[in-house]
Amino acid sequence: MPPSSGKKNNTAHSNDITDIKEQLSLLAEPAYRDFSSSLLPGTEHILGVRLPALRKIARKLAKENWLENLARCTQDSFEEIMLQGFIIGYAKAPLPDILEQIAAFLPKINNWSVCDLSLIHISEPTRLGMISYAVFCLKKKKRKVSFSSKFNNA
What we know:
mainly alpha
């Protein structure tokens, strides 16, 4: 193998994509692909990668440069689309960034599995923000009620 010059070449991004595809193909199980295909009629390009393995990959990709890693996933297989949803769900990012990626992801949902499983992961990071906002609104409303009740009873 030739020594590395230390310079990044233009094929680094395409190699990253190949790495994801290669990793998924190594994890693919023909029997699981057949099983998944029977549950998802009309869904094409199922590799047969089990969900725990997809989640593990997604957690790793979401930890570092999650937007870049998200962009590395194509739509060539069911698993890559699932991986995108999981990455969005595991990403630690500001809510507006997450919501922007959710909006871009929604048109890719083409079966019940991507919808159910990806959106469960996506809703987790946004749920705390929504709950916090709801609590803030309730406290604000309670303050208004308390304030007005003090002066109306006087």
